[in-house]
Amino acid sequence: MIAATCGGLRVVCVYAPNGRIVGSSFYQAKLAWFDRLARWLAEAADPAEPLALGGDLNAPEDIDVWDPQVCHGGTHVSAAERDAFARLCRWGLIDVYRQHHPEPGRYTWWDYRAGNFHKNFGMRIDHLLATRPVAGRTVWAEIDREARKGRPIPSDHAPLVIDLDQPGHPFEAGLGVRRRPNRGAPCGRSLMGTKDAAAGFPIEPMLAKLATELPAGDGWLFEPKWDGFRAIVFRDRDRFYIQSRELKPLDRYFPELEAGFRTSLPARCVVDGEIVIATERGLDFDALQLRLHPAAWRVKKLAAETPASFVAFDLLAGDGRDLRSRPQAERRLRLEQALGRTTGGVHLTPCRRERSVAEAWFHRFEGAPGSTA
Q1: In the chain, at which residue ranges do the beta strands (DSSP E only) sit?
Q2: d(Cα 181, Cα 178) in Å, to the nearest integer?
């Protein structure tokens, strides 16, 4: 545990022991650690003062695990561990994430094995707990699931981020998590300016929100969720720029894509999509990560051996017009018209209204199809 006061906020960073096996000496040490933490809070802190405590606490509730029956009674979810966590809350700490996300199926940790991340077999064991003065200032909270696909080697955890809003202090996560992305927001300059439309216009992508089931009601457009690198492609005639979800350039890592962009994309456009590498075994995310190499010769070699493709799913601008404020159905139609003759490594993602098709995608792809009204 380490603690510091920054800007009037006391920040406490902790890492609870794993406990290994219920009843073992490691398990008893974990409970003793929680006792010491509770005692420290009681003696050295005040629930009426601004304090945030975060870290891997290894003590989820039923709503925080993918299958309570499978996990019941094991390490992390035993009654004693949960009571130790609840003791922190009784002292005066609030689970800030749950203030904004009461829904199940939201996790921060997945086992490396058996494709559990893609199946969403996970646990929410990383927490940001705060006293009431801090919890009342929290306007936003999110788990950056995409960061779980980190490079060069992914972690088995995903970052949990909260936004403490103050006038004049905009939030910047630095992890590719962006608060309240708004494709309809006014833009100071045209996305397709006359001088330079292929660079210098970073767009904060609208991130997917994990779902455990299809949304109810009619009027939905369903698309499969691709397991790749999010990418926004800017084209202004002979100039191209590929922007990552972290607003950084991706061009140098995927040089083979430009040929397909030249023959498939309109002369002036901004297209949102995903970069993927398809093999006989399916999409290969590991192969994508290998591309993020500093040596140009290595990138060129991999581009020839395992060429990437771009799957387009949204048209953000075209023919000098910013389309982000237009309805999704209209943008989809424009995208289909714009990419009517795709060639090479450029593809148009499927989009259907039939729920039966979406149900099949739900189980076939990364856990849920994309859904838009």
Answers
A1: 2-6, 9-15, 51-56, 94-95, 109-110, 122-123, 126-130, 138-143, 160-164, 221-223, 229-236, 239-244, 268-276, 278-279, 282-283, 309-318, 321-322, 346-348, 370-372
A2: 6
Residue in the block written with tokens 């424009």: 334
Q: How many CA atoms lie within 13 A of 314 on its CB side?
A: 25
Who wins on pLDDT, 353 or 149? Answer: 353
- Return the domain boundaries, the chain: 2-164, 221-372
For domain 2-164, give the CATH number.
3.60.10.10
Nearest-angstrom CA–CA distance, 336 and 114: 36
Question: Which is more confident, 296 or 361?
Answer: 296
pLDDT digits (tens, 9 = 90+) for 106-144: 899 988 777 788 788 899 999 999 999 999 888 888 888
Q: What is the pLDDT of residues 247-278, one digit of tens each?
A: 888 989 999 999 999 999 999 999 999 999 99
DSSP 147-196: GGG-SSS--SB--EEEEE-BTTB----SSS--SS--TTS--SS-TT-SS-
Alpha-carbon dihedral 19, 25, 30, 36, rounded to 10 degrees? -170
CATH architecture of the domain with residue range 221-372 = 2-Layer Sandwich (3.30)
Calculate the CA 22 to chain-centre distance. Answer: 32
Regarding pTM above 0.85, the answer is: no
Residue 194 has pLDDT above 50, yes or no: no
Q: What are the φ and ψ backbone dihedral angles of 127, each rounded to 5 degrees?
A: -135, 155
Query: Can you give the pLDDT at residue 362?
Result: 72
Q: Which two tokens stand for residue 288?
A: 């994508």
What is the chain's length? 373
Contact of 344 with 264, CB cutoff 8 Å: yes
